[in-house]
Amino acid sequence: xxxxxxxxxxxxxxxxxxxxxxxxxxxxxxxxxxxxxxxxxxxxxxxxxxxxxxxxxxxxxxxxxxxxxxxxxxxxxxxxxxxxxxxxxxxxxxxxxxxxxxxxxxxxxxxxxxxxxxxxxxxxxxxxxxxxxxxxxxxxxxxxx
Length: 145
Ligand SMILES: CC(C)(COP(=O)(O)OP(=O)(O)OC[C@H]1O[C@@H](n2cnc3c(N)ncnc32)[C@H](O)[C@@H]1OP(=O)(O)O)[C@@H](O)C(=O)NCCC(=O)NCCS
What we know:
Helices cover 31% and strands 35% of the residues. The chain contains four helices and seven strands, in the order E-H-H-E-E-E-H-E-H-E-E. It has a seven-stranded mixed sheet, sandwiched between helices. The protein is globular. The structure holds coenzyme A (COA).
């Protein structure tokens, strides 16, 4: 069984590794600390016996808007509901913090994940040309709370 709890600095190496295994984009470790500092309420990890197996992080962009920056689950632990729980927690906390709109970006060719978000109430609202550093396009998705 896993628990969802707030990010702590000791999670940094595992968070970095999960991102490296899950995403094409490469992010430096410092970035996670900056995100954590920017919005303490928006960074959660899934923890199994002290091992971090997934995380979600985001920021509050405006009084009523939060933005998911990264959601990733270790490949060995996918399809067990962990990604859904992390997203649910982010949305719950956003709502408690006065947010009415949650946004995120996803690669246009990441069909499985686009479906994952659509099933959880997000809709595509825009295409972002060359959004990613390798030139791929992104979709901006929004869920209204
Ligand atoms: C997207 C991602 C975070 C989803 O994480 P996950 O933990 O696999 O998500 P879940 O297990 O909650 O849901 C995945 C699917 O498994 C299903 N599932 C949930 N619980 C399940 C269970 N106990 N047994 C079997 N399947 C289950 C869900 O129904 C869901 O399918 P659906 O979307 O058709 O409803 C993960 O695939 C990932 O890390 N991808 C790479 C990174 C990425 O693309 N991130 C998004 C861009 S920011």
